[in-house]
Amino acid sequence: MSSLQDLLAQRAEIEKKIADVQREERGQAINQIKSLMAEFGLTAADIAGKAPTVRASTAGKPTGKVAPKFRNGATGETWTGRGLQPKWLKAALASGAKLEDFAL
């Protein structure tokens, strides 16, 4: 039967061997990565960078301004129909006008 001191010594020896093997394998991995980077002309920035992402809702669609759908005949102000209604349109609707009256 092994004594506690013998078991502790064995554990220390095994932990040292583990650390040595980890250090050696890490070095091999680094060398392999450097070789692949050189072969393909990669830099650290290429490895760390993120690929641009495209939102599914805009994939393949042009982006930019949206054409106006409503116009205030008196002032020429416009609204695309997106977002909050502008004050001029709210005021006109409150005074009895219809949304269709401002459609383009």
Key terms:
104 residues; mainly alpha; two-stranded antiparallel ribbon; 2 strands
Compose a concise summary of this entry.
The chain is mainly α.
What overall form do the CA principal axes indicate? Answer: elongated
Q: Which class best fits the helix and strand makeup?
A: mainly alpha
Q: Count of helices? A: 3
Strand numbers in spatial order across the main sheet: 1-2
Gap between N and C termini, in Å?
A: 95 Å
Beta-strand percentage range: under 5%
User: Mind describing the biggest β-sheet?
Assistant: 2 strands, antiparallel
The radius of gyration computed from the alpha-carbon positions, rounded to a whole number of angstroms, is 35 Å
Low-pLDDT residue spans? none
SSE order, as H and E? HHEEH
β-strand number: 2
Assembly annotation: single chain
Q: Residue-averaged pLDDT, rounded?
A: 87
Percent range of helical residues: 40-55%
Question: Can you describe what's shown?
Answer:
This protein is mainly alpha-helical. The protein has three helices and two strands; from the N terminus they run ααββα. It has helices at residues 4-40, 44-48, 87-94; strands at 70-71, 78-79. Strands 1-2 form a two-stranded antiparallel sheet. A hairpin with a 6-residue loop joins strand 1 and strand 2 (78-79). The longest helix is centred in the first third of the chain and has 37 residues, at 4-40. It is elongated. The relative contact order is 0.07. The model has no long low-confidence stretch (mean pLDDT 87).
